[in-house]
Amino acid sequence: MTVLHRSHDRGITTLTLDSPANRNALSAALVGELGTALADCAADPGVRAVLLTHTGTTFCAGADLKSPPDPAAFVALMRAVVELPKPVVARVTGHVRAGGLGLLGACDIAVAGPDSTYAFTEALLGLAPAVISMPLLPRMDPRAAGRYYLTGERFGAAEAVRAGLLTEAADDVDAALAPVLDGLRRASPQGLAASKALVTATVVETFDRWTEDLSARSAALFASAEAKEGVTAFLERREPPWVW
Prior knowledge:
InterPro entries: ClpP/crotonase-like_dom_sf, Enoyl-CoA_hydra/iso, Enoyl-CoA_hydra_C, Enoyl-CoA_Hydratase/Isomerase. This protein is of the alpha/beta class and about 240 residues long. The chain has helices at about 30-45, 70-85, 100-105, 135, 140-150, 155-165, 175-185, 190-225, 225-235, and strands at about 5-10, 10-15, 50-55, 60, 90, 95, 110, 115-120, 155, 170.
């Protein structure tokens, strides 16, 4: 059963995350299918840009704790979005959590609706937003990252724009995206690839510098007793013992 659907219209390929049963969490299946779809888009001259969207009320809930992807595969997926020689635009009308923010942050343009919410929940589980920092920290306001990384607070689309996670918050997401997609259709493939390379250069350098270190940190945290307790408490819908 596929967890990703593709459609195409006038140069724009839409990739729709479709695993509502687990809130489009980053399972091994979803990461694999999305990686394959992006590679196909890169190789297809008929694709001018990619629109990444979702079914259900959640864009992406983060890592699937019951069927997690290989960590290296998830890092490779985020980097594939950043390095795709075609723009990737996120259309968000639902919630984004934890690792889902890494996928969102890797996109070139992100437009979200008023019902969307965001939270870095890792610290609440004994983890840290380690590998997702590579596409996020070069783009986020440092003070916002410091607050939301540490507190796990939930915030809305307007604050996500201020923090640097989103390009635009709009009551009508599709109306806001219309001029964006029109502009991408009017741009030349070479012009888009060269322009994207300019604006993603710092993010690519961050992947080059930090992938090994942050992947090791993430693995160590997931293997720790504290994180195992935090994840167990989350799955059992109870508070972990460190909550006062």
